[in-house]
Amino acid sequence: MAGSSLVLVRPTTPQEGDRLTFRFTTDAPHAKNWVGIYDGDRKPGVGSSLAWKYVTTTEGEVVIDSQSLTGGPYTAYLLAKDGYAILAQAGPFTFRERPAVPRPRFAVDTVTTAEIRTGTTATVRVAGLWTAASGAQSGQGVTFRSLGGDAWLSVAADGTVTARMPRGGVRAPGVLTVEGRDTATGSTSRVTVQVPVLRKARRAPLKTAVLDLWDAGTHVDGVVTKLVRLVVTQNLDVIALSDTGGTLGKALADALGWAVFEDPAGLAVLSRHPLTDPRPAGPDLPAVAVTVRAPGVRAVRVWNAHLDEADYGPDGIRAGRTAAQAEAAEVA
Questions:
Q1: What are the beta bridge partners of residue 193?
Q2: How crowded is the C-beta side of 105, counted as CA atoms within 13 Å?
Q3: Please, what sign has the CA dihedral across residues 310, 312, 317, 318?
Q4: Nearest to residue 79, comparing CAs of 92, 65, 91, 90?
Q5: I want to staple 84 with a disulfide (CB 3.0 to 4.6 A). Which of 44, 60, 129, 270 is the partner?
Q6: What are the two backbone dihedrals, phi and then psi, of residue 232, each rounded to the nearest 5 degrees?
């Protein structure tokens, strides 16, 4: 063994199904030298190897298929002349469980659109609600079709739902079931699209929320998908975000098919309705503003500011400050 070596070089911490690359050297090359893998404390010659391959040169790399191996530990040996004399052995290694690949699907089961008036036409995109196998919110490579619903609702292959409200009006919200099919995997999923009717006698509500994204969502897995579920299940109309990193607001808006104004400073306002008259943050006022123009609602000016966490009042109270002292520290 003194003149030979064997090392697992890729990957050093394998997952189940990985192909293993070993680097070997030997001063006793032979056309029938080979590398074999054994489980536990079994030595060559005690039962068969679990996977193996010949190596014929003095040095090089050998790739061994290990798809049947799980858990561990395992040890690989460099063996001489089609026999069991050990020339070298690698350090023990184990296989990590490979995470299951999520099935491509819609992120939600049901989505409710904005209310629309009698005799008008509106569109909403559902492609961004598709969660790909990679975890990204993307309808790329997905085709969409209707599985049935009200006659005044339809969906295009790209996931654009069109609502053509009859001039005579309807009594109940429109419902359309949309199926998405991933062309690469064949996976299918469906979402129910509900389209409420805006009655002339009342103004449409405007449901809003404010969220801080905590370092642009870097501490959360699947942050865009989780935000999509929050917005859709709560049926929000407008959402103000802070700490977006300058890009997460747009990523969420793209998934929802919404309008967005996002400032590089990390502030964003998203709306299912059109946005106009944006005002970026500046040194004089670290806040953004935008006007939401929703049907049935007077134009609404929305402001969004990221408050400085330094001298945060509740923290000061916990540290022993009086209410007056905490307020003074926040104002300073």
A1: 111, 176
A2: 10
A3: negative
A4: 90
A5: 44
A6: -70, -45
- Asked if 224 and 241 touch (Cβ cutoff 8 Å), the reply is no
**Dihedral over Cα of 234, 235, 241, 246: its sign:** positive
Tokens found for residue 301: 């000016």
**Count of other CB atoms within 10 angstroms of residue 55:** 24
Written as tens digits, the pLDDT of the chain (332 aa) is 568 999 999 999 999 989 999 999 999 999 999 999 999 999 999 988 999 999 999 999 999 998 889 999 999 999 999 999 999 999 999 999 887 777 899 999 999 998 888 888 999 999 999 999 888 999 999 999 999 999 999 999 999 999 998 888 788 899 999 999 999 889 999 999 999 988 765 566 789 999 999 899 998 889 999 999 999 999 999 999 999 999 999 999 999 999 999 999 899 999 999 999 999 998 888 899 999 998 777 899 999 998 766 777 777 888 888 988 888 887 77
Task: Specify the residue for token string 């700490």.
Answer: 243
Spell out the domains of the chain, with CATH numbers in brackets. 4-89 (2.60.40.2840), 105-195 (2.60.40), 208-305 (3.60.10.10)
Other CB atoms within a 10 A radius of the CB of residue 232 amount to: 20
Q: Which residues are bridge partners to 20 per DSSP?
A: 64
Which amino acid would we find at residue 139? G
Beta strands 59-65 and 74-79: pairing type?
A: unpaired
pTM above 0.90, yes or no: no
Q: Are strands 238-242 and 208-212 parallel, antiparallel or unpaired?
A: parallel
Would you state the structure tokens that stand for residue 74, as one six-digit string? 């395992």
287-292 and 300-305 beta bridge pairing: antiparallel
